[in-house]
Amino acid sequence: MPNYTAPLDDMLFLFEKLRDNKNYNELEKYNEVNSDLVKDILGEAAKISENLILPLALSGDENPAQLENGVVRTPPGYKEAYSKYIEDGWISLSCDPKYGGQGMPKTVSAFFDEMLSSASLSFKLYSELTIGAYNCLLRHAPEEMKDKYLPKMVEGKWSGTMCLTEPVCGTDLGMLKTKAVEQKDGTFKISGQKIFITSGDHDLTENIIHLVIARASDSPPGTKGISLFLVPKYIVNDDGSIGPRNGVSTGSVEHKMGIKGSATCVLNFDEAVGYMIGPKNKGLNQMFTMMNLERIVVGIQGLGISEIAYQNSLSYAKERKQGKTNNSKSTNGADFIIEHADIRKSLLNMKSIIEGERALCFWLSQQTEVSLYHSDENIKQEASDYVSLMTPVVKSLFTDLAMEITSDAMQIHGGYGFTKDQGIEQLYRDNRITPIYEGTNSVQAADLVFRKLINKNGDIITKFLKMIKSECESKNENVKTFSKEINYYIDILSKFTDWIKEKHTNDKDDVSAAANDYLKTLGFVSLAYSWIKVLEVSYKEHETNKKFYDDKINTAKFFFQKILPRAEFHYKSAISGSSNIMNFKFN
Amino acid sequence: MPNYTAPLDDMLFLFEKLRDNKNYNELEKYNEVNSDLVKDILGEAAKISENLILPLALSGDENPAQLENGVVRTPPGYKEAYSKYIEDGWISLSCDPKYGGQGMPKTVSAFFDEMLSSASLSFKLYSELTIGAYNCLLRHAPEEMKDKYLPKMVEGKWSGTMCLTEPVCGTDLGMLKTKAVEQKDGTFKISGQKIFITSGDHDLTENIIHLVIARASDSPPGTKGISLFLVPKYIVNDDGSIGPRNGVSTGSVEHKMGIKGSATCVLNFDEAVGYMIGPKNKGLNQMFTMMNLERIVVGIQGLGISEIAYQNSLSYAKERKQGKTNNSKSTNGADFIIEHADIRKSLLNMKSIIEGERALCFWLSQQTEVSLYHSDENIKQEASDYVSLMTPVVKSLFTDLAMEITSDAMQIHGGYGFTKDQGIEQLYRDNRITPIYEGTNSVQAADLVFRKLINKNGDIITKFLKMIKSECESKNENVKTFSKEINYYIDILSKFTDWIKEKHTNDKDDVSAAANDYLKTLGFVSLAYSWIKVLEVSYKEHETNKKFYDDKINTAKFFFQKILPRAEFHYKSAISGSSNIMNFKFN
User: Fold this and answer.
1) What are the structural domains of chain A?
2) ipTM for the assembly
3) Which of A120, A302, B379, B457 can bridge A402 by disulfide, Cβ–Cβ 3.0-4.6 Å?
4) Is A438 a catalytic residue?
């Protein structure tokens, strides 16, 4: 089983030193969320992740969630751990105090998301979708619905799901077939089949609150006729007590390559009672509130799994002796593999990606809070646009790079990486869902190039590029070397952006074919931007903590020398266009 | 379960049209191996792969090989299939007729290796190591040993293994601890533990012939004291009959992420009777005869798994409807995903890599035969040097790209790619061993930059670059466009090579850190070189089969536009050197 120690130093560094975001600091509601408090919270979060949740990873992999006589059983240990988890209030960390939450900002809860993902993604998913459903209800449900359902969800006694996918529609939700027939009392009867429903059923909570998209009888076809419904597993009585079982049953639990502890269900709705959330036919927009926040969390899952893969690779590399290095001083026997250049390179590849991602994610958490709570509408909108722009990038880039990192971790472990003993192969399998769910990474890329670069508020990408270019202009001589380097790639990204915009008008297939490459280029430049912010602090405060800041500076160097150049290949490959691709005649 | 149809058209195209290799055509022993014969053989090979072996893939994954009361049981169906397989003489395809083989060249048997890898890698491994052991014995064993063991191995009644790895040594065999104590009768008693032994024990054959490296009592430490021994599971009597059980037992069978049908064993040798093969203390060289051929086959495994992943992605993309394309004519519902630009790009990415690899592999098979059998020592040596140069490239590049291809296949399948139903995730898991075994891909890269570029016969890489540059000079105007493109990358590769050579003398760590990048650059250029050869034929013979050759030309275009540019990133990333990497202080 892999070991894990939450990277508290790095998290606290970001919280303390990268918080000079004026807009974020203007949010009065977080005035009291200071470093001392955050340090305490993250310390406790680390303990629960390391001690309570980490051991569940292996249990879940060896004893997958399964359907027994119509009931889904979670793996051994999950129930006890979940009880403790909600008892200590962890589900409520980022929730509104009005419903019993602790009201912590994403700048704190995102770190906890990362820790949980490192410890056991399967276990995490049981509460993650509750938060997703909570966020959706908080924004779109009528007050009485919120009052009825949210407190129990925040408490963790009830969990949540998002029911979108059907056998014929995953990416393309306009094709959905689930029907909602309105009843005289204003409720609906929901019928249809939903698949790939994470935590669709399980034995951890008293009730499950399904958020289901369906088409009302008199709604138009396509995406414009989709409404969102709340469908509880058990009907909730007016007094809040649990009533009779609703018409939802579990058809099967998927057998998957990874995250086996998580119950991925086929759910059959058979005239189940449902309550419409928000305005009719606006269900897809409402669901996207949930989806967008959730997509960022999926990116964080990739980051968390990368972190534990890195930690275990590092410790294995320090223990395993094999081969002599080029400058070996050993006279008999081999050197530790951490002395070998290519192993060191792999480790730094992981580390520089992980720390860059964590910094980018922290910036994104700040923007998210500003987008939700700033009093100035313009500032709020700008932040919202940045979040919207970076959501597909974080989701796709972090999860793809997590595959690279877990794969490199296997290579470092050699044959021991491929066998079950060390648990490395499980990280690789568990992470493999992240580039698929919540919209495949190609769907994210299409979302980026077709909907996010330019929207009704204007040319978001140009604003973003201008902003990072200006923030990367440093007065510090040391940082200037890096600024020069990032400017080279910002220029490439600008050219790439212009190319995309031009193709928007005259060849959309060129844009589609280039979408993944564009996302990667924007992603690597964004990571470099985060590193510049880290470097700025590292040089400025170098004297106060030399060891820590030297580590940062040299990790950044690696990123700029070895990783950032990838951006250019993506540009070059993409601008050759798509005519050959579109004209190709497949056999 | 994935479907599979052997790509006979492409294989026969290579055999018929890319065989204008003067040196290869001078090999008299293959005079009679003409297109008609090869067509018949490959046709039968396709049948057995598609009908007999393909169904074993799922069986092996669901019922892993396991140890029961000291005996290893193969998955259901393996025994019956294996009997049929050897009855029809498939093991003997490439073996010497002197020992009962069919004497087919690698230009034929490599295609069969590919088909078997597509159908079931786990099943294939049970005979693959027999051929490895056969090759090693053929070259290094005394005549009486060959007469005693080879006929039964060629027949498939006895199988073979290669026992190298021990708990403390995988890459670094000089550290091995297995001991060989000479007896009065000239035999040895072998004691020690070997791990990760593929097909180390199983129930398919009457006997298993282990080739074991061990250190004789009076041999020096390190790699110079390693000798090679033949250690049968059952002692073979002088009359060839099976005698008593030898002192080899199976400690355990590994639980692995993939190739679960293959028994990966811990073998304990306890004063087992062993017979020395070839000269004492030269065991590592002898084993490397086997290893090098085996490494090429591992590359072919990657190719085979890529092919079946591609075929199933293509057919799924033609069946699955999701979303509208940019130029959709569909008025209701979605388009087939094969109409989407990014899916088409993924498919062409697979196809252009696969067909380029197959062509490169065919060239390598020709070189291998020339290196073994040409009458002119200089020609033989040159071919041998090319094989030696390209072995790590084919092993690493093909297996890494097979991960990319099986991963893209999962993405095309979406959620269905991650569940067990379609068998796509199994391809991904099965292939994941290929970048690890027979020396990790980083070990291959180190072998390339430190031992293969320049050897005692001179500057092999310069000779190779000169050769491909001259062969890429085309008189055909159409091909010239591609030649110009490859020349740009050959120049980059030359600069990269010069950089590596310079660093050899003044900073070996720079070479180590750049090794994987260099391998990739050489690999992509070599694939482009293969494509140029294919293009030469395609334009020349275009009129004879327009559909086939248009397909080739457009696939080549994709490779040159979208994939070859990767070579440049690797160069740029690598030449930033290793000082930051080597000086980094890991926590």
Assistant:
1) 290-319+333-574 (1.20.140.10)
2) 0.96
3) A302
4) yes
